[in-house]
Structures are given as structure tokens and as C-alpha cells.
From TrEMBL:
Residues 60-130 form the Gelsolin-like domain. GO terms for molecular function: SNARE binding; zinc ion binding. This is Gelsolin-like domain-containing protein. InterPro entries: ADF-H/Gelsolin-like_dom_sf (IPR029006), Gelsolin-like_dom (IPR007123), Gelsolin-like_dom_sf (IPR036180), Sec23/24_helical_dom_sf (IPR036175), SEC23_SEC24_subfamily (IPR050550). SUPFAM superfamilies: C-terminal, gelsolin-like domain of Sec23/24, Helical domain of Sec23/24. Gene3D superfamilies: Severin. PANTHER family: SEC24-RELATED PROTEIN, SECRETORY 24CD, ISOFORM C. GO terms for cellular component: COPII vesicle coat; endoplasmic reticulum exit site. One of its GO terms (biological process) is intracellular protein transport. It holds the Pfam family Gelsolin.
Length: 189
């Protein structure tokens, strides 16, 4: 059900999207293999502000976070990747030390909207670069980095990928499950 909901909310099937964007997305995705198309429907999101403290069971990439805004914190930095783009959401209350270690910036305003990820001489930056390089290896794609902040256009793009949230034109994941459950019950009755 989660992937069905994500597909319904995808750029290609959203009713409020521009027809050019929808046509491009459908044409592009239909020619991809399944492993490359799935992230365009349901991207992977991970927290990167706490990479040093995560225990990974033999994997370079930490566990994914559900695509819901309730799993985001204004003190956090999150990476959402769909196989083409890497959207980096920086909360309004991120520790300046974390910003300095990851981006060599003291505030989010010093980071350009589109940037090339640099590796700095600290464990957090090295760990982030290891994660990004593993994602690039898995996806066979370089990934374009875009900085997202609450309230700007890219921030809205980032939150549009939160497919488990309720939208003005769509159900939340829980509401969708209830809807499916009711349909099944009515067919069984």
C-alpha cells in the first residue's frame, strides 16, 4: 500500500502538476529498470546530522527514515535521494558546529542552494562522503545536491516527497490504509 500511495502522489500522477512535468516523468520512469525507478516513486531519506553516533550493521548507509514530516526535527539535517537528486534539508535550529563540520559554514544562509559536497577533515564529513559515495555507486548516478530550507521553493520540493503526510489533494498513509481496509470489507460483505 505504501508504494501505491507514493505512486499516486508521484510527479507523474499528481493531478495538480504541470502537464510537461507529468509527461516527462512518465516517459522517463517507464524506460528505467525497477531498481532505478523505485527511488523516483519512494525516495530514501536518512538523517545526516547524527551519522557519527549511528551503529551500522555492516552497511555504510544508515537505515531509512519514513517519508513523513513527523520524523523530521528542526535541529536535524536530512538527505533525501531519489537516484537523481540529493535534497539536503537543514532545519532552522541546527547546531552551528554540525554545519561547520559538514559544510564549513556557520549558518545555513552561507551554503549555496546548489553545491558540490566537499570532504573536510573531521569524522562527520568523512562519514557523510562515504554514505553519498555508496549511494552513487548503488544508483549509478552522480546525484545533484540541492539545499532545502523551510519556506523556500526547494523546501517545498523536499516536503512534496513526504508521501506519508496528508496533502490538500491526497490522503495520509494511515488514512489510505483505512480507505483500503474499508474497500476490502465492503467487497467481503
Amino acid at each position: 500500500p505504501l508504494y501505491t500511495l507514493a505512486l499516486i502522489k508521484s510527479i507523474g500522477l499528481r493531478t495538480e502538476g504541470r502537464i510537461d512535468d507529468r509527461s516527462f516523468w512518465i516517459n522517463y520512469v517507464s524506460s528505467l529498470s525497477t531498481p532505478l525507478a523505485v527511488p523516483l516513486v519512494y525516495p530514501r531519506m536518512i538523517s545526516i546530522h547524527d551519522l557519527e553516533s549511528k551503529e551500522l550493521d555492516g552497511s555504510i548507509i544508515p537505515p531509512s527514515i519514513p517519508l513523513s514530516s513527523e520524523h523530521l526535527s528542526e535541529e536535524g539535517i536530512y538527505l533525501l535521494e531519489n537516484g537523481e537528486d540529493a535534497l539536503v534539508y537543514v532545519g532552522n535550529s541546527v547546531d552551528p558546529d554540525v554545519l561547520r563540520r559538514l559544510f564549513s559554514a556557520s549558518s545555513v544562509d552561507e551554503i549555496p542552494t546548489q553545491f558540490v559536497l566537499q570532504q573536510y577533515d573531521n569524522p562527520l564529513s568523512k562519514k557523510l562522503n562515504e554514505v553519498v559515495n555508496e549511494i552513487r555507486r548503488q544508483r549509478c548516478s552522480y546525484l545533484r545536491f540541492k539545499l532545502c530550507k523551510k519556506g523556500d521553493a526547494l523546501g517545498m520540493l523536499f516536503f512534496s516527497y513526504m508521501v506519508e503526510d496528508k496533502t490538500p489533494t491526497g490522503l495520509s498513509y494511515v488514512e489510505f490504509l483505512v480507505h483500503i481496509h474499508r474497500q476490502i470489507q465492503s467487497k467481503m460483505a
